[in-house]
Write a structure and sequence with these properties.
mainly alpha
């Protein structure tokens, strides 16, 4: 459960940042971001939890550069927020290794992911309202919202099936 959320967050983070850079004509840097995302996914597969801190720093640094170069704000924020979510999932997964076997690990995972997901959905909702008010809502942003909603629904269906 945590692994699915972690992989999804990494993909959404790197994808958002790379898309923001591609839209502005920086395709070589977006290629670097894709390669970095693959390395980040590889590091999580090998349980190198320390790499998520590097991933968070690279994502926030890339978003800050995008802000400074006046790229589309929504993609930079989405990339950094999903990177923060991926870092949080990595740290949560690391802490779960030290929990007793008789604890309700699945319940803890569900509650943690639900809390963090609500915060992220709230942020995306506010960003969408901001884009609508400034008349900058794009088809690509709508696609990102649909992907996030589908991932959330997939997670809900998975939770209900296992109960």
């Amino acid at each position: 459960m945590t692994e699915f959320a972690l992989v999804s967050a990494i993909l959404l983070s790197i994808g958002s940042l790379a898309w923001g850079y591609v839209k502005e004509g920086f395709s070589s840097f977006s290629l670097f971001l894709f390669v970095f995302g693959i390395v980040w996914l590889f590091s999580q597969w090998h349980k190198w939890d320390w790499f998520s801190s590097i991933g968070l720093l690279v994502a926030v640094f890339a978003a800050a550069i995008g802000f400074w170069l006046e790229f589309d704000l929504s993609w930079m924020i989405a990339g950094s927020v999903f990177a923060l979510f991926a870092w949080d999932m990595t740290e949560f997964r690391r802490r779960l290794r030290y929990i007793a076997v008789d604890d309700d690990i699945r319940g803890m995972q569900r509650r943690h992911i639900a809390r963090v997901s609500l915060v992220i959905l709230g942020g995306l909702f506010l960003m969408t309202i901001s884009l609508l008010l400034r008349l900058r809502f794009t088809f690509e942003w709508g696609v990102l919202l649909v992907i996030v909603i589908l991932l959330g629904l997939t997670q809900l269906v998975t939770w209900f099936r296992k109960q």
